[in-house]
Amino acid sequence: MAKTTTKVGEEEIKLVMDDNKYSKQKILKSKKYSDKQDLINALLKDDTQYSITEVDELINDFMKGAVK
After folding, report:
1. Least confident of 2-6, 23-27, 42-46
2. Is there a contact between 25 and 2 (Cβ–Cβ < 8 Å)?
3. What is the DSSP letter of 10?
4. How far is CA 54 from CA 10, 11, 33, 40, 67, in A?
């Protein structure tokens, strides 16, 4: 995991970035995405590894898409 710091006012805050990558199958088995399995199946490719941040961004982008 990558670590970085940022300053908010006078306080320095340490941020931990999760840069681990997971397969579509691992993400489908996670509790975090148990209610979004159909969406995960549609959005993610079988042969690609994704970070949690990437998955969240893909889901958010899809959910914000225009309704036709």
Report:
1. 2-6
2. no
3. T
4. 31, 29, 13, 12, 23
What pLDDT score was predicted for residue 37?
A: 96
| Residue 48, burial from CB neighbour count under 10 angstroms (0-12, 13-18, 19+) | exposed
- Residues 67/45, Cβ–Cβ less than 8 Å: no
Do 41 and 34 touch, CB atoms closer than 8 A?
no
How far apart are the C-alpha atoms of 6 and 52, rounded to whole Å?
21
- Of the candidates 17, 16, 13, 41, the residue with the CA atom closest to the CA atom of residue 27: 41
Q: CA-to-CA distance for 33 and 28, rounded, in angstroms?
A: 7
pTM for the complete prediction?
A: 0.69
In the chain, which ranges are E strands?
2-8, 11-17
